[in-house]
Amino acid sequence: MCHSTDSRPPALANPGEVAQDGALELTSADGTVFSAFHAIPAEPNGVNIVILPDIRGTHPYYQALANRFAQAGFTTAAIDYYGRTAGVGVRDDEFEWKQYLPSVQPDEVAADVKAAAEHLTRFNTGPVFTVGFCFGGGQSWRLSASDLGVTGVIGFYGLPKLVNDVVDDISAPLLLLLAGADVATTPEEFETFAKNLDAAGKTYDMHVYEGAPHSFFDATYDEWQEACDDAWSRMITFIETHSAKVPA
Question: What gap in Å lies between CA 112 and CA 106, rounded to an integer?
Answer without folding.
Answer: 10
